[in-house]
Amino acid sequence: MINGFGLRTLAAIGIIVVASVAVFLIGDLQASLITLIGGIAAVLTAAGIGDGEDAASPAPAADPTPPPDHIPAVIDAIVEPILIVTSGQVSHANVAARTLLGQHIVGQDVRLAIRHPGAAERLMSPPREGAQPPVNLVGLGAREQRWEMRIGDAHDGAAGGRRIVHLVDQTGSYAAERMRVDFVANASHELRTPLASILGYIETLGEEAGDEKDLRERFLKIMFDEARRMQRLIEDLISLSRIEAEKYRLPDRAVDLAGLIDEVRGDILDAQGEDAVPILADLAADVPPVSGDSAQLSQVLYNLIGNAMKYGRKGAPVTIRLERLPTGMVRFAVSDEGDGIPAEHIPRLTERFYRVDTGRSRAAGGTGLGLSIVKHIVERHRGRLDIESIIGKGTTVAVMIPAHGSAVIKR
C-alpha cells in the first residue's frame, strides 16, 4: 500500500480524517461524512499526478547497444574470427581472430591485419545499403585454408564509421566438395576404361576377327571379364551409397561373429576349388555376440579376406582371428603374408579409388572401393578399424565392434 499511494498521500488522508472527526464532534454528522469522502477523493485524484516521486515508476528502457567496454567480452564468446573495424583500423578482435591473424592486429590498419588482395578492396570500399556478397579468401592462415569474409556496417554513430568483419572457415566444405568431384571423376574413369575395351573388341569381332574361333573366344573372354569388372564397380557404388544412407541408424541385432566367420570362410573355400588359398581361423571361445547388421558384417569379411588373398604371396595362408577385448569390444582381424604396404600409404587406404599399386589392383579385379566400404560399415557399427603392415611380412586389418549386451555364446 505504501508503494502504491506514497507517504505524503497517506498523511493527507490522515489530516482529512482528523478534520472530519472535528466536524463530527461539533455535532454535524452529515457535514462530517461529506468532508471525509470528498477529502479522500480529492487526495486520491491528486495522488495520480502529485506523488510521482513516491510511487513506483517504470525503469528506463535498457540501451540495446552494449557499452564499448563490453564489446571484447561479447565477441570473445563467438568461436569464429570477428573483427571490429573503426576508421579503417582494427579496434577490437576476438580470440579466434587474433589466433588466426596474429596477436598484434588490434590497432593495425585492417589491410595489414588481413593480408589478402581479395579482402583489401572490399574492406576499404564505402558502406553500401543492403546485404553485401561474401568474399572468398584462399590461403589465409594456412595455404590450404579457405575463408569466407562477410562485412556488415554497424550504423551506431561511431566517429569514422564502424564495421564488423566476420570470417567463416569453409575449408571443410571445400574439401567435401573436392572429394565429391574427385569421386565422380574417378567413378567415370573406372567405368569408361572397361567400356572402351569392350567396345573396341566388339568392333574387332565385327570385322575380321569374328571368323577365327580361337581369337573370337579370347576376345569374348576379355569382354566378359571387363563387363564383370564394371558390374562389380556398379555393385560397390550402390552398396557404398546404401551404407552411407544408413550410417545414422545404429544396428542393434545380436550377431554371432564366430558363426559368421565360419560361414564366409566356407563359401570362399568352396568357390576356389582345388587351388584354394588356405584360410586359417583362430576363434577364441566364449566370445559374446556383437550389435550389428549380419549382411554388412559379412560384406566386411568378404572384402578383407578377398584383399588378403589378392595381395598375399601365392600359396601363403590367410589367417582370421577372433577375440574378446577387456574393453567390452569384440575384435576380429584378417592377416596375410604378402609384401606389406609402405607406411605413407596406410592413412589413405580407405579413400575411394585409392590404390597403392594401380596396375596390380586392376589386374586382381579390385574396384578401389573395398576398404572404403569396410570403413563406412565399421563407422555405422560405432566400431574401429586399424591397419598394420610390415614390409616383407604382411598386413593385418583389424575391426573392433561393441559387444551386444552381456550375453556370451558358448562354443
UniProtKB/TrEMBL annotation:
Residue span(s) of domain Histidine kinase: 186-405
Q: Name one Pfam family in it.
A: HisKA
Signal peptide segment: none
- GO CC annotation: plasma membrane
Q: Give the Gene Ontology MF terms in alphabetical order.
A: phosphoprotein phosphatase activity; phosphorelay sensor kinase activity
The protein's matches in SUPFAM superfamilies, at most eight in alphabetical order, are given as: ATPase domain of HSP90 chaperone/DNA topoisomerase II/histidine kinase, Homodimeric domain of signal transducing histidine kinase
- Catalytic reaction list: ATP + protein L-histidine = ADP + protein N-phospho-L-histidine
Keyword Magnesium present in the record's keywords: the answer is no
Q: Which SMART domains match?
A: HATPase_c, HisKA
One GO biological process term: cellular response to phosphate starvation
List where the protein spans the membrane: 6-26
Keyword Membrane among record annotations: yes
State the EC number(s).
2.7.13.3
- Keywords from the named record: Kinase, Membrane, Phosphoprotein, Transferase, Transmembrane, Transmembrane helix, Two-component regulatory system
Q: Which PANTHER family match?
A: PHOSPHATE REGULON SENSOR PROTEIN PHOR
Q: What is this protein called?
A: histidine kinase
